[in-house]
Amino acid sequence: MATKKSVGSLKEADLKGKKVFVRVDLNVPLDDNFNITDDTRIRAAVPTINYLIGCSAKIILASHLGRPKGVTPKYSLKPLVPRLSELLGVEVIIANDCIGEEVEKLVASLPEGGVLLLENVRFHKEEEKNDPEFAKKLASLADLYVNDAFGTAHRAHASTEGVAQYLKPAVAGFLMQKELDYLVGAVANPKKPFAAIVGGAKVSTKIGVIESLLAKVDILLLGGGMIFTFYKAQGHSVGSSLVEEDRLDLALSLIEKAKATGVSLLLPTDVVAADKFAPDANSKVVPASGIPDGWMGLDIGPDAIKSFSEALDATKTIIWNGPMGVFEYDKFATGTEAIAKKLAELSGNGVTAIIGGGDSVAAVEKVGLADKMSHISTGGGASLELLEGKSLPGVLALDDA
């Protein structure tokens, strides 16, 4: 992907008094009382908005929240306003819609450095259809476009891709730029040795990532539920562990591919097995080659943690996507937490450690090591698709630098 023009290349002279349509990703989790339970994404959006405030622009923020079908009050962005206002130090105004007369009036009355938050763009079904007329209506509110919503950059929606066709310049925000620098940069031009750690429940959801990374890494470590498909494919007994029977041939072909390309593919040598899938299950450490009948592997074992850590000691760049076990249960979180601690330690020694989205981010935050990593991706699906080597429509739509 070509390098994209950044909001940082626009100065006060380009921005003063200009209406800027900023697509941010404020899709944060809320509890039943509409309290924000994790404001990471809101905090991640602040640098770009602050920059625009500092350049006396008039800022129009657009985001989605959840997957509403039509106007759904529980997916309103209204509960986000107090936290967003607090973080920005300005009073954010919210509209009751994202297009229409009321919105136009609010935009017209925005002062320089003022911030208007549009209501959930997905309240209109045209958003996800990338309907050109809807995109035009959004674009008509502003003079230029900034996309800082990396988490939805893999979707060609009206507010992520459509509006960029009608507003120029169309540039990347600071968060988008940082994500691309790290994720694209690491994969395209890593400091070697380069390792990837891929976990998660199923091989099927990570095939693309594994295949893409096999062409680039020196070491590939696999963990999570997907390992049992690899074990079974090699003739080991897996007890009642999760196995994708229709992916056994694929697992063997990935092992062969690693051999052919000289990639060191490491599977855990031992696992923590449980007698049921529950936080209070009985558990014991067993060798990977023989999980007893009626038992299921729910985490990587102590030997695997040791050999994985030793393999990582020799590396200069590491990308991690997907947990090592069922880390939601404390009893089966040891492997995932050990990897998080190892990456934090290596990061402190100058290794580039990138947490590539999804559950790994939650795991790192659970251990309280988020601020120790080189980069934590805010995108789930977007990070995966980038690691798979796919182009992201929301990025392609922006102006080249």
UniProtKB/TrEMBL annotation:
Pfam family for this entry, one: PGK
EC number assigned by the record: 2.7.2.3
InterPro entries cross-referenced by the UniProt entry: Phosphoglycerate_kinase (IPR001576), Phosphoglycerate_kinase_CS (IPR015911), Phosphoglycerate_kinase_N (IPR015824), Phosphoglycerate_kinase_sf (IPR036043)
Coiled-coil regions listed: none
Keyword annotations from UniProtKB, A to Z: ATP-binding, Kinase, Magnesium, Nucleotide-binding, Transferase
Catalytic activity of the protein: (2R)-3-phosphoglycerate + ATP = (2R)-3-phospho-glyceroyl phosphate + ADP
Class of this enzyme: transferase
Gene3D superfamilies per the UniProt record, alphabetical: Phosphoglycerate kinase, N-terminal domain
ATP-binding found in the keyword field: yes
Keyword Magnesium: yes
HAMAP family in the record: Phosphoglyc_kinase
Protein name (Swiss-Prot/TrEMBL): Phosphoglycerate kinase
